[in-house]
Amino acid sequence: MAKEVGYRKFSIQKSLVYFVLVFGSLASLFPFYYMFVMATRLNREINSVPPPFTPGQDLVGNFQKVLGNIDFFGAMGNSLFVASAVTIGTLFLCSLAGYTFAKLDFKGKNILFGMILVTMMVPPQLGLIPQYYIITTLGWLNDFRAIIVPGLINAFGIFWMRQYIKEGVPFEIIEAAKIDGCSNFRVYWNIVVPMILPAFATLGIIVFMFVWNDFLWPIVVLRDQAVHTLQVALRALNDARQVDYGMIMSGTFWATVPLIIVFLMFNRLFIQSLSEGAVKS
User: Are 230 and 212 in contact (CB under 8 A)?
Assistant: First the structure.
């Protein structure tokens, strides 16, 4: 009897957990769904009372308006290039630095790592003016280097890689490789990198999404329309005297699709990284 009561209690708790997870998932997806609904409607339908909650028939028409106002695909190509370059560079440099802080011993290592962590508490807006001065001195205005180079390394990426490598790569494997004559870089490239692919996926998704959605820094340094990233180009849709919400939501919806594709591509490694971290902790 007690076992049956315990089983019922466990079933109720399990059902409650699933209910909360399903409800949370639907609540998280609703803004994206409603953005799609607005992207398929005309302005008069969006402003009606009550507002529509089902898709309409103007998705193609609204997107044609977007294409008529901005170079959508050109800006998307710019964003893909910049986000991919920053992501690849960040993964390489941050993982290399993380391996150095996790597995190599040198004087002042802990102090230097602490100084890197301190920079995480500094709002990025505070560095906007000195960073802009450096970019103008180098002559990089209206150049993709103004976005790519400053974003190649960040404190969170170093911290994330250092923690993952420290816990996920045994010292014995590294020592065995060094005994076999491997240099530090070869140990990193041939031993460490294949073992931290889930960490690569997690950091890559975070960095790619951040660069893709970044608006403040690109609008400061990219003034030429030919080099506008997608977020900067979408801003031009608000410049009209009468705001067309269907057109704006159409551009925003299609600008979000590449992020979903990237996440789905690396979803398995992303979940694996979080699961391994939960097991180790």
Answer: yes
